[in-house]
Design goal:
- The complex is a heterodimer.
- In chain A, 70% of the residues lie in helices and 0% in strands.
- By secondary structure, chain A is mainly α.
- Chain A starts with 14 loop residues before the first helix and ends in a 6-residue tail after the last helix.
- Chain B has one domain: MetI-like fold (Orthogonal Bundle), CATH 1.10.3720.
- Helix content of chain B is 76%, strand content 0%.
- Chain B is built from 12 helices and no strands.
- In chain B, helix 4 (87-122) packs antiparallel against helix 5 (127-141), helix 7 crosses helix 9 (223-260) and helix 9 crosses helix 10 (266-275).
- The termini of chain B are close together.
- The chains are: A mainly alpha, B mainly alpha.
- Chains A and B meet through helix 5, helix 6, helix 10 and helix 12 of A and helix 1, helix 5, helix 6, helix 7 and helix 9 of B.
- Chain A: It is a multi-pass membrane protein.
- Chain A: Residues 89-277 form the ABC transmembrane type-1 domain.
- Chain A: It is found in: Cell membrane.
């Protein structure tokens, strides 16, 4: 026999606590967080987890199909695909995370200035519109190719492609917050523009930004793969999800496992991030709920 | 309406000027000398100078820009160094290929996405809804080129139903054309269907919550009639915007998918130009893609204002 006893509310919960409780009630958030955490742990402990050296060539084991020794098979250099996918998680996640961070910084600064200073709004946003007129993936490919293939340049290229939309989202929330009464109150107390923006406007405009950056993270992993496929991704021999797929392309009929497994790794990572984003959106940004 | 049109056109013009400036400016991102990609270290100073002149790099930046604008208003996107022909001509020659690919993909994505979105909204929170939403999320998480490779592996290599790639013009052999274009178009569409379905569902749910739907229900109309006569037409207006966004995404997607299926379209031309540092092709190609995107969105915005008077009165 069990009796349900309503717990008395001891004290009013803080807004942060309310958000955390709601997040833990969201199925999307929990599944997404679990997937992302799993992939992140794989990336961090890649050296311990991978059964073989991801860069070691071995002629005797080349193009072996998946079996009990090589779970994901081997490539044309005899390298273990499982080990390469595990290490690939590292580069792919670093590219995704750094792109989200850079985009977050640039997008916040551009969007906050455009939303907060009406005279700068129009010129800045027209510039963002112009950048958004290029297909993001083509812009990223062009910038990465022109700058030269490297992990850093891929991050820069992807950040340039994802910043305009982020700036637009930050601007939209700044425009809403700017009209609230507590902003007027802060001004009446004599707070400077900078103080109002940093201390009062931005903290209240963060929800949609966090949601957006989760999606940027996911998009960046997909885009890195596309860049590698085109041939302007992170240079070999270090593996990323995309570069493993790109190298498997020439062996697609005789050794499809080289292509299949890193692709599945991308799907799991991006699915996790998208679920995480959906969960965050439902809690942090109820207006965008679909 | 005319005030809305003037405002919208003026805005588009400003963006167009900026877009053309950015397309041109990509050459300034090049570390070092742009000619280095074409000439090796054995090139004589004379050869370097000639190439710099051909690219217009020997002139002051302000003059380079003036030249660029003077040329593009006449529709001249420059001269490809590697193809040794006009960039405009090269793009126009390949345009029908890319347009048929992107157009077919757009049709697939909209039809499948809107249908799936309606099914999801009508069965809100029941299994058809959950199935559609799960598939939509999956579609948003798959790399498009990888999906293309997998489809080639399954339908072309294993089952032999379609060729593994290439392109046959419609005028030569309509069936051959269909065979080469259906798989790439489906690949592109599958990635976008999820987005269209999500947006249709959201738009439909919002409409179905409104008072006039309850009125229709109260006066005893059949459920199907409420959905199709009162719900759908209103829900489709926001889908116009979705169509514009999807068209833009398909343009970028087509560039990648043309690589996967070896389709000789504008995308392959641009990627080839990017990989070989053929700057006139990069600049002209980027500008061309952006102009198409801006035009599509301009048309979508105007159609939206026609369909929903509230927009233009704002």
């Amino acid at each position: 026999m069990s009796i349900a006893i309503a717990k008395p509310e001891l004290a009013p919960r803080s807004p942060t606590m309310i958000v955390i409780v709601r997040l833990f009630q969201s199925r999307s958030f929990l599944i997404g967080a679990a997937l992302v955490l799993a992939i992140a742990l794989v990336a961090v402990f890649a050296d311990v987890l991978s059964p073989y050296d991801p860069l070691r060539n071995s002629f005797r084991t080349r193009l072996r199909p998946p079996d009990s020794t090589f779970w994901f098979g081997t490539d044309h250099f005899g390298r273990d695909i499982l080990s390469r996918v595990i290490h690939g998680a590292r580069i792919s996640l670093v590219i995704g995370l750094m792109t989200a961070l850079l985009t977050g910084i640039a997008g916040t600064m551009i969007g906050a200035v455009a939303g907060f200073f009406p005279t700068l709004d129009n010129p800045i946003m027209r510039l963002m519109d112009a950048l958004m007129a290029f297909p993001a993936i083509v812009l990223a490919i062009a910038v990465a190719a022109v700058l030269g293939a490297s992990v850093v340049n891929v991050i820069i290229a992807l950040s340039i492609a994802t910043t305009p939309h982020t700036a637009r989202i930050v601007r939209a929330s700044v425009l809403v917050v700017r009209e609230r009464e507590f902003i007027e109150a802060a001004r009446a107390l004599g707070a400077s523009d900078l103080r109002v923006l940093c201390r009062h406007v931005m903290p209240n405009a963060f929800g949609p930004l966090i949601v957006r950056l989760t999606y940027v993270f996911a998009t960046a992993i997909l885009a890195e793969a596309a860049l590698s496929f085109i041939g302007v991704g992170p240079p070999p021999p270090a593996p990323s999800f995309g570069s493993i797929i790109a190298q498997g392309r020439d062996f697609i009929t005789e050794a499809p496992w080289i292509t299949i497994f890193p692709g599945l790794a991308i799907i799991v990572s991006v699915l996790g991030l998208n679920l995480l984003g959906d969960g965050l959106r439902d809690v942090l940004d109820p207006r965008m709920r679909t | 309406m005319s005030r809305f049109l003037v405002k919208r056109l003026a805005g588009a013009f400003v963006v167009l000027v900026l877009v053309s400036l950015m397309s041109f400016a990509i050459i300034w991102l090049v570390p070092g000398d742009p000619t280095a990609a074409f000439l090796d270290t054995s090139a004589t100073p004379d050869q370097v100078a000639r190439l710099r002149q051909q690219l217009g790099l020997d002139r002051p930046i302000a003059m380079q820009m003036l030249d660029w604008y003077a040329r593009i208003v006449q529709g001249d996107l420059g001269h490809s160094i590697l193809l040794n022909r006009s960039v405009t001509a090269a793009i126009l020659e390949r345009l029908p290929v890319t347009l048929s690919l992107a157009g077919l993909a757009l049709a697939f994505a909209l039809v499948m996405g809107v249908l799936a979105g309606i099914v999801a909204a009508v069965h809100h929170n029941r299994w058809p809804d959950q199935l559609v939403m799960s598939l939509a999320l999956f579609g948003l998480s798959v790399p498009d080129f990888w999906l293309g490779i997998m489809l080639i592996l399954l339908f072309a290599v294993k089952l032999g139903l379609f060729p593994t790639g290439g392109y046959v013009p419609f005028s030569e052999d309509p069936f051959g054309w269909a065979g080469t274009i259906i798989m790439p178009a489906l690949t592109l569409a599958i990635i976008q269907v999820g987005f269209v379905a999500r947006m249709t569902r959201a738009s439909m749910l919002e409409i179905l919550n409104q008072d006039f739907i309850r009125t229709a229900d109260a006066k005893g109309l059949k459920r199907a009639e409420i959905m199709l006569r009162h719900g759908l037409p209103n829900a489709l207006i926001p889908i116009l915007t979705v169509g514009g966004i999807v068209a833009g995404a398909l343009l970028g997607g087509a560039v990648i998918i043309e690589q996967v299926y070896s389709i000789p379209g504008v995308g392959r031309l641009i990627i080839g130009g990017i990989l070989s540092r053929d700057y006139p092709v990069i600049q002209g190609g980027l500008l061309f893609l952006a102009v198409i995107y801006l035009t599509v969105n301009l048309v979508v915005d105007i159609l939206y204002a026609v369909a929903d008077p509230r927009v233009r009165l704002e």
